[in-house]
Amino acid sequence: MASAEADALVISSDPLHPANLIPELCRSFYQLGWVTGTGGGICIRTGDKVYIAPSGVQKERIEPTHIFVLPYPQPPPSPHTDRVFLRRPTSNLKESACTPLFWNSFDLRNAGSCIHTHSQHAVMATLLWTGPVFTISHQVRGTRLLVMSTSAVLRFPSQMIKGVRIAGTGTALSYLDTLEIPIIENTPNEEDLKDSMAEAMVKYPNAAAVLVRRHGVYVWGNDWEKAKTQTECLDYLFEIGVKMKLAGLLTVLNE
Ligand SMILES: CSCCC(=O)C(=O)COP(=O)(O)O
Ligand SMILES: [Zn+2]
Q1: Is the CB of 163 under 6 A from ligand 1?
Q2: Is the CB of 99 within 6 Å of ligand 1?
Q3: What is the mean pLDDT of residues 179-199?
């Protein structure tokens, strides 16, 4: 694709164009402490095009011209290139190291957007709940409850659970549903999380997110709005769960 034609993929006066949205959303995620220190971010897929931010840059300072555009699906790999782009920035930038993980959300959930945060609430949840899954249920014998792993139960207002969708892209959970968020173990390189994230998504087909121990969380949705609001709901649940655990408000069943 010629350069001018390729650049047209990221130049738009529409504030809702993905190349304008990604910088704006990254600025608000930075304020929340989700993407400080360059890591984390958001990708947006609109049909056959994926918009992705650069790697290792201050995410709150991204501009539309820094955005990569990739075709979805990717053509079969060739000996000459392992990733195909419709548009790359002219500056010396590399696409986000999260790209293979974002791709899991497209391939396995048909997501339209995926968010990766380094939120301390998500990290603390993976430190305080040491098992392979973070499970939230709502109500037992008329009492609203939050259950984290199989070992702990706490009383909890369940409203935020209703902001999460089954599998991230299905129908909204009711407070009668159980929410399961698998936790995978971290690796030195972000790219190496791809297979364990995919395995967790297959094992937990209703999961709307995958937590990464000592690292953060990946959350996806049908579009950027749903990915964003689900990330907000889950972050709220992680935060209050951690606070309640630290305050000794959990009823431990089986530790
Ligand atoms: C300090 S970030 C380390 C790598 C990481 O966790 C990450 O999320 C990288 O994201 P990027 O988009 O900057 O490649
Ligand atoms: Zn990360």
Answers
A1: no
A2: no
A3: 94
21 HSE (CA, 13 A, CB side): 18
DSSP state of 144: E
Atom of ligand 1 nearest to the CA of 41: 12
**Per-residue CA distances from 227 to 8, 83, 131 (Å):** 26, 25, 25
Which of 158-180 are b and which e, b meaning 16 or more Cβ less than 10 Å from the residue's Cβ?
bebbebbbbbbbeeebeeebebb
On whether the pTM is more than 0.80, the answer is: yes
Q: What is the mean pLDDT of residues 190-219?
A: 97
- Give the Å distances, CA to CA, from 87 to 9, 51, 68, 75, 90: 7, 9, 6, 15, 9
Residue 101 lies in a domain: no
0.90 surpassed by complex ipTM = yes
The candidate with the shortest Cα–Cα distance to 113, out of 13, 218, 24, is 218
The percent of residues above 70 in pLDDT, for the chain, comes to 87
Range of the domain at 53: 1-96
Q: What is the pLDDT of residue 234?
A: 95
Q: Which residue has the higher pLDDT, 209 or 190?
A: 209
> Does 128 lie in the same domain as 221?
yes
Domain assignment of residue 105, yes or no: no
